[in-house]
Amino acid sequence: MSIERSQQLDPRADPELDRQVVRKLDRQGVRLAVAFVGLSVIWGLAFNLTGLPFFPVVVAGGVVTGLTGFWVRRANDEPEPSFALTWPVAGLAVVVALVHFAVGHLLFGLASRVLPAFTETALEVYQRTGTLPVWGQLLLGGVLTAGLEEVFWRGAFTTMVADRVRPHLPDGLGRKRQGFALVVVSTAGYALFHVATLKLALIAAAALGGLVWGSLLLVTRSVGATIIAHVLWTCLMILFPPT
Where are the chain's structural domains? Predict the structure, then answer.
């Protein structure tokens, strides 16, 4: 199965083989649900317990997220989505990150005029990250944590959710519309996860980021591309915060 098309079970196939496939999907689904809840708790604690050292907890959460992504990913005989990259795909990821950064700043400015909570919650996050030198923020927050997040969210969560939602979409929707619908569904899960942080700015950023990185995965089928886009965007947000 891939993000573009799920493998349909052939009714003429070996029933035992079909049962094995179903059991495998069930195990993956349980792992995904456990990971979603467990990681929500970790990130919720990281952003809301001010007594904890912020960056160490966030980095630990990023490492756990990445390892969890490998835990719930599909088997080796199902290679998509891969981490493979080509120069054109890497270039596209860079362009996407730059556009995402510019559009995000514009939307943040507009939203903060209507909802001051955007500015307030963003300031809370930046004030806590300011305890670490910029190079440390870039290395630990931008490169390590953001990169490992993609292993789980685009390397496992997005595609596995897509495989389960796709059979329920109308056949007449068309491949492109189906792809967009799947990105929207996975983005909803990504944004819902960030509700645990209780930070409105982070929830909104997750909603936009989920659409961007999910669409990039849909086009490139490369988690490597989404890692580049996420890491570059995060580093730019550290260097040039919207506030």
Answer: 15-239
